[in-house]
Every structure is written in structure tokens, then in C-alpha cells.
DNA sequence: GTATATGATTCTCA
DNA sequence: TGAGAATCATATAC
């Protein structure tokens, strides 16, 4: 007799079903000789199906009868035997799966974006960094920042609530299956290892749902991020005063318009923009100036005149303030606020004004040049080694500004 | 609506 | 890493 037949014949006698006594080998033989095993199986299945419609009490009673059946130990041992054989085929399944790389990627991303993990940092930090890079007015940045944070918090909330539901459903189903298995373990051999494996299978099934949840959350974050980044691309022109400050610096350092980090910071502060925006501005300005010097001549003239007028005003104030005996005793540079502190002497500057208003740009190169060791400084003249003639920024060859000067062309 | 100006981004290079 | 160069995308002027 094969295992299945043994099992089935064993089952026919269980549960108080109206079957011949299977405990009696003669009876079984009689049955088989009658050629009715197929019919019996059909009947048994019918009866099993009917069990679901029976009342709980009846089912309990049958279960009790089954547990107390004198054939139970025999059936159990048969099942154990079958199990012993079949367990070999499922051994491979028992090996632990490595963590799904896709889930790991999603987890890392959600963590980095601040959706999972601790509430602080992550996304808000990313938003802060992005907002800082966005530039514009601080108010705008903070509005965008808070908007981003609010939306991210919303995503986070939905994610956690869905995750909670998922975990609850998963644990409920697992418990249910475990209870069923425990229950069944009274009538068939189920090892704790098997229960564990079953739980793992359930978790695997559920993890695909979890993956979907994580994936859609990531997508939502990506969409939010791209919208936020798109918003960053929305360009706003700097205000007039900021542009003037930058232009003043640029044209007054035309021989070497590469502000140092300190100068950039100072300019950024003065203009109400970020240091990277200052860098962008100078990068764009240098390229565009170089490409079309002619076009910028007018602008250069404008700033030359402006700086000359400013300087004249400063000199007038200085001569009023200073002793009449020393009319040219070193006023500070007024080309731009960033130049203040440079001993841009009136003599040098007067000549600068006269020359450059008559012959602009070609002579107006900004920066300071020491007059043959005299200690007096005049604006630089454009020379062959100037940045405008080379692809790369000039090496640090321009004359150093006076001590304490903030000019980058003298310090970098 | 089109041309131009301009701030930002991306890529390459030293 | 900073700069040049090309390019994108938007603002602004007409």
C-alpha cells in the first residue's frame, strides 16, 4: 500500500464518519477488493466540504472524537513518515534569503530623505541645503523650505500610517496562520521550524506589498523634490543695488576679477545673496565680458565715472576733514565698499579719472599698481598676461595691494 | 511674440 | 576644487 492510500484509508475511519472500521485490515481488504477506493475518496471529500457548514459545536465534537480516536497514533506515525520524505524536497526553501537589494535601496533612500528614521535631519536638512543653494531672498527660501518640509511631513505621515496598517495586517495574518498550525500540530506533525518557515513565507509575500508602499513613497518624494528643484530654477534677477555692488567690484578689479572667499562673503552679505550666487555672477560676468568687451565698454565707462565721482566726493570730504597742510595724504579707496581700506591715493586716482573718462576700458583695468616703488598705488593697466587674454585665470602676479587690503586680486 | 539679458546648471579640464 | 564654456530656463524690454 502506498503512503497516500494508507493516509486516505486511515482518514476514512476518522471523525466518526460512517465508514467501515479501517482498523480492521480485513475490512479494508474487503473494500479494496470491491474496487471502491475512488468512490470512498469522493465521499470523504464531500464530507470534508460539508464540515465547513456544520456548527462549531459539531466541529469541536468531531475534533475531539478525532483526537481520541484509537487510530490517531497510527495516522500520526504515517504522517511523520511521509513528512520525513517530503521534508527533503523543501529543505532548500529553508535557507534564509539575503535581504532584497531593492528594499535596501528604497530603505536607504527613505532614510536619506527623512521619511523613515528619526524625524529631524534628513529631508529637512536636504531642504535647507537646497533652499540655501536656491538663493533669492531669505524669506522666499524659508517659504519654499517650509513648504517642502510640510509636504515631506505629509508624505512621512501617510507612509507611517500605511506601514502601521501593513504591519498590523501582516502580524494578524501571521498569528492566525500560526494558531492554525499549532492547532493542526495536534493531529499532524508540525515542528516549530516549520512554523518559522511558514511565517517567513508569509512575510515574503507581505514584503512585496511593503515594497510597493516604499516604492510609491519614494516616487512621491522624488516628485516633490523635482518640483522643489524646478522651483529653484525659477530665476529672479538680483536687485539693482546688488548688481551695482557686483559691477563696481568687477570693474574696479578688471585686471583680476576673481574675488577671494572673504571678498565673496562680503559681497554676498552686501547684496543679500549667497556666496555661490556671487561666484555664479562673477563666472557669468567674466565669460560674457570676455566674449563681448565692446558691448560692456559703456557699462565700464559708467562705473568708471561713478567711481571717479565717488572718489571725488570722498576726497572732498577727506580734504575737509584732514589738515589743509596735507591735502593728498592718502584717503581710502571708494571704488566700492569692498575696496575701502585701500590707500588709493588722490594723485593716482585723479590721473585714473582723467585717463579713463577719455580713453575708457582699454585703460580702465581696475586693481592697484605701485608707482615705481613709490608706495603710491594707481589702477592696474591691462597687460598681455591679463585674464582677458588667457583661458585660465591669471596666476598671482598682480601687484599686491597694500597691507590689509581686501582685494582678492592681491591676495589669491 | 520675439529678442535679449541674466541667473543657474552641467560638463570638462587643469 | 575652482574656473571656463556651453547651455538651459526664465525675466524683461520692445
Automatic annotation (TrEMBL):
Superkingdom of origin organism: Eukaryota
Domain Homeobox per the UniProt entry, residue ranges: 229-292
Region described as Disordered: spans on this chain: 1-37, 379-412
InterPro entries attached to this UniProt entry: HD, Homeobox_CS, Homeodomain-like_sf, KN_HD, PBX_PBC_dom, TALE_homeobox
Keywords from the named record: Activator, Developmental protein, Differentiation, DNA-binding, Homeobox, Nucleus, Transcription, Transcription regulation
The keyword Transcription regulation is annotated on this UniProt entry: yes
Main location: nucleus
DNA-binding residues: 231-293
PBC domain span: 36-230
Localization (cell): Nucleus
GO cellular component, as recorded: nucleus; transcription regulator complex
SUPFAM superfamilies the UniProt entry points to: Homeodomain-like (SSF46689)
Gene Ontology MF annotations: DNA-binding transcription factor activity, RNA polymerase II-specific; sequence-specific DNA binding
GO biological process: one example: skeletal muscle fiber development
Family in the record: Belongs to the TALE/PBX homeobox family.
Protein name: Pre-B-cell leukemia transcription factor 1
Species, as recorded: Amphilophus citrinellus
Amino acid at each position: 500500500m502506498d503512503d497516500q492510500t494508507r493516509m486516505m484509508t486511515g482518514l476514512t475511519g476518522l471523525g466518526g464518519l460512517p465508514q467501515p472500521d479501517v482498523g480492521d485490515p480485513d475490512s479494508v481488504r474487503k473494500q479494496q477488493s470491491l474496487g471502491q477506493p475512488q468512490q470512498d475518496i469522493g465521499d470523504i471529500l464531500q464530507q470534508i466540504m460539508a464540515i465547513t457548514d456544520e456548527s462549531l459545536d459539531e466541529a469541536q465534537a468531531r475534533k475531539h472524537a478525532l483526537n481520541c480516536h484509537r487510530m490517531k497514533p497510527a495516522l500520526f506515525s504515517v504522517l511523520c513518515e511521509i513528512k520525513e520524505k517530503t521534508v527533503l524536497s523543501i529543505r532548500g526553501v529553508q535557507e534564509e534569503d539575503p535581504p532584497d537589494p531593492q528594499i535596501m535601496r528604497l530603505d536607504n533612500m527613505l532614510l536619506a530623505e527623512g521619511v523613515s528614521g528619526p524625524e529631524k535631519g534628513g529631508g529637512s536638512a536636504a531642504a535647507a541645503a537646497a533652499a540655501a543653494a536656491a538663493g533669492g531672498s531669505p524669506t522666499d527660501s524659508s517659504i519654499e523650505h517650509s513648504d517642502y518640509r510640510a509636504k515631506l511631513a505629509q508624505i512621512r505621515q501617510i507612509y507611517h500610517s500605511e506601514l502601521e496598517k501593513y504591519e498590523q495586517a501582516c502580524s494578524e495574518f501571521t498569528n492566525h496562520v500560526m494558531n492554525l498550525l499549532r492547532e493542526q500540530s495536534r493531529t499532524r506533525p508540525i515542528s516549530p521550524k516549520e512554523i518559522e518557515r511558514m511565517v517567513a513565507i508569509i512575510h515574503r509575500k507581505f514584503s512585496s506589498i511593503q515594497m510597493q508602499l516604499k516604492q510609491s513613497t519614494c516616487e512621491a518624494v522624488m516628485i516633490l523634490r523635482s518640483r522643489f528643484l524646478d522651483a529653484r530654477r525659477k530665476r529672479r534677477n538680483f536687485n539693482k543695488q546688488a548688481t551695482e555692488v557686483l559691477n563696481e567690484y568687477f570693474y574696479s578689479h578688471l585686471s583680476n576679477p576673481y574675488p577671494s572667499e572673504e571678498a565673496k562673503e562680503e559681497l554676498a552679505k552686501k547684496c543679500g545673496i549667497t556666496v555661490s550666487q556671487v561666484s555664479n555672477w562673477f563666472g557669468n560676468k567674466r565669460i560674457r565680458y570676455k566674449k563681448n568687451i565692446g558691448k560692456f565698454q559703456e557699462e565700464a565707462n559708467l562705473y568708471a565715472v561713478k567711481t571717479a565721482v565717488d572718489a571725488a566726493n570722498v576726497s572732498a570730504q577727506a580734504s575737509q576733514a584732514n589738515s589743509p597742510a596735507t591735502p593728498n595724504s592718502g584717503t581710502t579707496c571708494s571704488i566700492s565698499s569692498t575696496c575701502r581700506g585701500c590707500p588709493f591715493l588722490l594723485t593716482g586716482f585723479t590721473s585714473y579719472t582723467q585717463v579713463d573718462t577719455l580713453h575708457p576700458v582699454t585703460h580702465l583695468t581696475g586693481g592697484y599698481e605701485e608707482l615705481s616703488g613709490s608706495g603710491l598705488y594707481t589702477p592696474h593697466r591691462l597687460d598681455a598676461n591679463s585674464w582677458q587674454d588667457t583661458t585660465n585665470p591669471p596666476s598671482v602676479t598682480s601687484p599686491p595691494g597694500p597691507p590689509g587690503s581686501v582685494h582678492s586680486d592681491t591676495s589669491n
